[in-house]
């Protein structure tokens, strides 16, 4: 066993700004999905694995507390580890891909890498309606020589940028990394790293930035303070946006939950799941890939009165612990084989952090002409109020991947 182990660092940041509005109609979506079935782009092959991974990680995080907010980006985390896997060998390599829920018996590594390449390419397409950017930065200590193939692959497949830095000067390097993340998330995630070890030789940083606008916006003047029932005994006051109109909403009997789909301009959908009071845990345990695809395929347009809290929450996660529970241990230990990244020194990942933020508020909408008038049937429409803990998933239609997943337990908890 070598006497000195060099340290690598993995940092991930996700940011999601949701701008309120209202539900879109679904006719166009059906056309889009028909179209997609003919093509099967490479990223659709890895989509089921990403959903699987999203729920596995969600379950790990949710187990720790029944009440805290949860918010993370499965896509961001998977992309960063998939990039790391290109420089990992033997068991280290296998563990990374297996924790991301790939079965290496029936999926070729090349297929996986093609899938991620296509995923990143698609997500980073300029889109005038939806702002979505992801990036990977590799910060390498001046003393370290990287394997040429790793640099090429990460540039070609993962659109990554490499920076040569001096980790001994940890203050300057910390600033460089934090600035990179701040710039990538348009100023929303600042000071991602607080401490930086001088022994670090490599930092891998991934970020994702998403800003969506609802197809049809809520009206600001309808936003009023209301009670949010955190649990049976605690109620907090939060601004609730509301709208009476056409929504894709239905009651899922097996899960005792209302399920609401709201479309963004561009190709993303938000799925809100509102369990009956006290049933949240049960619903979390039952979330599966199959339920999710059913929700996305079966549409239930109907008139309803919907209210949603205006909020801003964030989640910060130690991935060494979480990924460890999903079976990824070698890469964080002295058994790590990252010889595909550098042959000069034994390297392990000492720290892996993910931070994601969610904002649902009025700011950011282009106010002009946003009001949509719709015919409402004469019968009394149901009222669906997200005034108790709920779950949400932000799904990218084009890549069929889960951009973000979360739980709102208390909108006031930062
Ligand atoms: C969460 O709720 C479940 C079921 O209600 C309970 O068994 C479990 O102990 C709770 N977990 C925590 C961390 O409070
Ligand atoms: C890492 O894995 C490669 C390929 O399997 C092997 O040749 C090399 O000896 C391993 N290095 C270490 C330090 O275990
Ligand atoms: C992986 O796929 C093979 C072949 O399809 C299957 O036999 C095996 O059970 C799968 N492994 C896991 C862990 O799902
Ligand atoms: C990082 O690079 C600097 C400058 O080349 C060097 O002084 C330092 O020892 C290196 N750090 C490690 C942990 O190798
Ligand atoms: C939405 O996705 C479809 C294909 O799935 C694509 O043709 C279309 O250009 C995308 N729309 C936007 C605004 O990116």
TrEMBL record:
Leader peptide range in chain numbering: 1-24
Any Pfam family the entry gives: Serpin
Residues in Serpin domain copies: 55-411
Alphabetical keyword list: Glycoprotein, Protease inhibitor, Serine protease inhibitor, Signal
Matches recorded under InterPro entries: Serpin_CS, Serpin_dom, Serpin_fam, Serpin_sf, Serpin_sf_1, Serpin_sf_2
Gene3D superfamilies listed in its UniProt record: Alpha-1-antitrypsin, domain 1, Antithrombin, subunit I, domain 2, Serpins superfamily
Record flagged with keyword Glycoprotein: yes
Listed PROSITE patterns: SERPIN (PS00284)
Family from the record: Belongs to the serpin family.
Protein name per Swiss-Prot or TrEMBL: Alpha-1-antitrypsin
Species of the source: Echinops telfairi (Lesser hedgehog tenrec)
